[in-house]
């Protein structure tokens, strides 16, 4: 959806991971119930933190949520990519995101330099191949944290990573909460610590 919007409205700066965005006197919000957070943002802006906190408590709205990142999933579903090599690589990354692989290895297999593929990826999808792979892995990790009780170390391994600490940092940066917080909030299986 974000890619479609950016193609259809190239002059509009879209912030796809924020729930409420203010640009001077203009305030916007994304998602169906985001008007509640937009309202809280306006209350905070015009009335201050104390009134904002009281309003949030009165309306039973979780104030911490400022990002749509926990709900965003990576993937090509519904996307039409004109560049055949980019489409081929993106689909390969989707199928193999759980495997230990590097962008350099994939590019070599496709007879393209990393630099050339990165340029083509940016032109087609607006992100680098590495960012795309990381997003796929984060999406995979979110599903595992939601639907299973496996340890976070196993989640990391199932997402093609070896370094638990760096993946935890990547997850927290992209999702806006730690894996433990994510599992506690969205998990449907009895969880372990993350």
Automatic annotation (TrEMBL):
Pfam families linked: HTH_18 (PF12833)
InterPro entries in UniProt: AraC_XylS_family_regulators, Class_I_gatase-like, Homeodomain-like_sf, HTH_AraC
Gene Ontology molecular function: DNA-binding transcription factor activity; sequence-specific DNA binding
Domain of life assignment: Bacteria
Stretch forming the signal peptide: none
Coiled-coil regions listed: none
Segments forming domain HTH araC/xylS-type: 87-185
Lineage, opening ranks: Bacteria, Pseudomonadati, Pseudomonadota, Gammaproteobacteria, Steroidobacterales
The entry's keywords: DNA-binding, Transcription, Transcription regulation
Keyword Transcription regulation: yes
Designated name of the protein: HTH araC/xylS-type domain-containing protein
Originating species: Steroidobacter agaridevorans
């Amino acid at each position: 959806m974000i890619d479609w919007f950016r193609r259809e409205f190239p002059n509009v700066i879209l912030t796809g991971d924020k729930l409420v965005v203010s640009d001077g006197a203009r305030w916007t919000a994304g998602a169906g119930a985001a008007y509640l957070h937009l309202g809280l943002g306006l209350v905070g802006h015009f009335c201050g933190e104390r009134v904002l906190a009281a309003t949030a408590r009165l309306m039973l709205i979780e104030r911490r949520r400022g990002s749509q990142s926990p709900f965003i999933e990576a993937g090509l579903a519904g996307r039409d990519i004109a560049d055949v090599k980019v489409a081929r690589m993106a689909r390969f990354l989707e199928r193999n995101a759980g495997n230990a692989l590097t962008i350099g290895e994939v590019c070599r297999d496709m007879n393209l330099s990393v630099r050339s593929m990165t340029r083509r990826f940016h032109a087609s999808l607006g992100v680098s191949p590495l960012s795309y792979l990381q997003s796929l892995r984060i999406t995979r990790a979110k599903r595992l944290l939601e639907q299973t009780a496996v340890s976070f170390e196993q989640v990391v391994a199932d997402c093609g990573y070896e370094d638990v600490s760096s993946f935890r940092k990547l997850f927290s940066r992209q999702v806006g909460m730690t894996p433990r917080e994510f599992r506690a909030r969205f998990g449907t299986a009895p969880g372990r610590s993350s």
